Amino acid sequence: MISLSKSKYCNFWQCPKMEWLNRYKPEEKTEDSSLDAILMRGNEIGDLAMGLFGDYVEVTTYTDDKLDISAMIRRTKEELSKGTEIICEASFSHNGLYCAVDILKKEDLGYAIYEVKSSSEDGNNPKPKAVYIADIAYQRYVLEKCGVNVTSTNLITLNKNYIRGEELDIQELFLIINVDDLVETEIKTVDLNLKKAENILNSEDEPEFDISERCRDPYDCQFWDYCTRDIPEQSVFDLYRMAFSKKLDLYRDGIIGYPNLLSSGRIANSTQIRQMEYALHNKGTYIEKGNIKSFLDTLSYPLYFLDFETMQPAVPQFSGTKPYQQIPFQYSLHYIEKEDGEIKHKEFLAVSGEDPRRGIAEALCRDIPMDVCTTAYNKAFECTRLKELADIFPDLAEHLLNIRNHIVDLLVPFQSGFYYNKAMGGSFSIKSVLPAIFPDDPELDYHNLEGVHNGSEAMNIFPQIQFMEPEEQEKARHNLLKYCELDTYAMVKVWQELVRVSEE
After folding, report:
1. Exposed (0-12), middle (13-18) or buried (19+): which is 6, by Cβ within 10 Å?
2. d(Cα 136, Cα 115) in Å, to the nearest integer?
C-alpha cells in the first residue's frame, strides 16, 4: 500500500524521482525563500473562494498546532451525513490515499468538486494547466473509492480580466471552469500512476530518471542541484538566453561542458561563445571602447538614475486594479546635475495598506524635471509602469510620458556585449554585473543589507508592514529604502565604470 496526499501525487505525476527524493533525501532539496509567500497567497485566495456559494462549513482542524487529518476526515463524514450543502476542505482517505477537496458542493445526484488555484485565467479562453487536471482527477478517484458520486469536476481560478471597483466582488473575481472532459481522460491514468508510485516509493533504491523537461514543467524542481551534481560546473545549462529545450537537446547529444560546446559547431551566438571562452581561458574584461563611448554619448546632464519597486497582489486591493497587476510603491532616484557634480539622492516609499499610485506619480513629477535624461536598468519595466500611471492620471500624463520617453537603458552596453567579464557568468542583470565589476566592495554587496536583499523580498514585505508593530514598521521601511537606494547607486557605479573604460 502506498501513502499519498494530492500534493505528493502531483509531485510524482511531474517526476517520480522528485517525490522519491522528498521521501528519502529531503536534505538535498534547495530551499526556496519564495514558497512562504506563495503559500500565504494561496491561503488568502482559498479562504476567499470558500464564500462563492454562500454559507459553508469548513472542517479544517488543528491539534497542538498541527493539521489533524483524522479529525478532518471524521468531521467530513459527519457533515455528509447531515446533508451539508457546502463543505470546505472536505477530507477523504482510502487505502493510504488522502485528499482534501477545497470546496465540495452538494447536488441532486451527488457532489461536485471545486479545486481552487491562485493562477489567473482568461474567461474567454481558459487553458487549465495539465497538473491541475491531474490534481482534480486524483481527488475524484479517491472520492469515488470512498463511495461518493462525483457529479462534476471544476477548477476555480482568478479572472485575469476582473477590474476591482470600490468593493471586492468575489463573484466576478473568480472564474469557475468545468473540466469534466479533461478529468475524464486523465482519471484513466490514475491507477497506473499509483501502481508505479507503489513500486518506486516503497523501494529504497533511488530511481533512475535523467534530467528532462519535467525538471521545469510545470514547476521548477527543488532537487535540480542534486540531480545535476555530476554535470560539469560550467555547462550548457549555464548558457545565456538559450531555451531550456535546446539545452536539453545538446545535453542528450552529449554536448554538455564548455569545451565540447565550443568545438561542436552547434553554438553560433557570439555572446554565448564569449561567455564560454572567457570562462575557460580566464580572460580579463572584454571592452568595446568605441561602442561604449557611442552609448555614453546618448546620455546628457542632468543625469538621473531611476528604479521602481512594485507589488503584485493576487487579490486586487485598490479600485481599478486587476489580479497580479504590478503596483509601484517605491522608487529610488540618484542624480548628477553636471559633469563632475555631486551625486544626489531622492526617494519615495508609500504607506503600506494605502493605494500608492497617486502619491508615487506626483512624487515622480516633482523629482524628475521634464526633458532630462533618465537611465533605468532594463528600462522596459520602468517605462511600462510610467505608461500605466499616465493612463490612470491624465492630469499628470504629459509629465510622466515625458520621463518615459527620455529613459535610456543602462543594460544596453552589457546585453550588447560591449562590456563583459567571466564573473558575470552570462547574466547581465544588475545583481550579476555589479559584483563582477566591483567584487571586493562591501558597500555594493546586496548580501550586507538587512531584511531586504532583492525585489521579491521587497514585494512580499511592503504589503505586510501595515500589520506590524510601530517599531517593526520603522525597521521594515528603513530596510526597503536602503535596498532600493542601493539599486540606483549601483547604476551610478556601473555608469562611472563605463565612463572610465571609455576614457582609457
Report:
1. buried
2. 7
309 touches 379 (CB < 8 A): no
Bridge-based pairing of strands 285-287 and 303-311 is unpaired
Q: How far apart are CA 179 and CA 177, in angstroms?
A: 6
Contact call for residues 347 and 379 (beta carbons, < 8 A): no
CATH architecture of 6-201: Alpha-Beta Complex (3.90)
As a whole number of angstroms, the distance between CA 178 and CA 392 comes to 35
DSSP per-residue codes, 192-218: HHHHHHHHHHT-SSPP-----GGGTSS
Measuring CA to CA, how many Å separate 485 from each of 286, 349, 449, 465, 482? 29, 11, 11, 19, 5
- pLDDT tens for each residue of 304-340: 999 999 999 999 999 999 999 999 999 999 999 999 9
- Verdict on whether the full-model pTM lies above 0.85: yes
Sheet with 110-121, edge to edge strand ranges? 57-58, 86-94, 97-107, 110-121, 150-159, 174-178
SS3 state of residue 128:
coil
* Cβ-contact 220, 30 below 8 angstroms: no
Among the listed residues 145, 252, 275, 198, the one whose alpha carbon sits nearest the alpha carbon of residue 4: 198
- Which residue's C-alpha cell is 542541484? 225
pLDDT tens digits, one per residue of 141-152: 999 999 999 999
* Amino acid identity, position 140: R
Alpha-carbon dihedral sign for residues 465, 466, 467, 470: positive
Count of beta carbons in the 10 Å neighbourhood of residue 91: 25
- CB contact burial 98-116 (16+ within 10 A = b; e otherwise): bbbbbbbbbeeeebbbbbb
DSSP state of 337: S
d(CA 462, CA 361): 18
Q: Give the domain 284-504 fold.
A: Nucleotidyltransferase; domain 5 (3.30.420)
**Res. 483 pLDDT band, cuts 50 70 90:** very high
Amino acid at 214: R
SS3 call for 410: coil
Q: Taking the mean position of all CA atoms in its chain, how far away is CA 308?
A: 17
The SS3 call for residue 117 is strand
Please give the sequence-ordered ranges of beta strands (E in DSSP) within 288-386, or none if there are none.
303-311, 327-336, 343-349, 373-376
Give the whole-angstrom CA distance, residue 78 versus residue 59. Answer: 10
Grid cell 522608487 in the structure block, residue: 331
Residue with cell 445526484: 109
Q: How far apart are CA 481 and CA 451, in angstroms?
A: 11
Look at the block and give the residue holding cell 474567454. Answer: 124
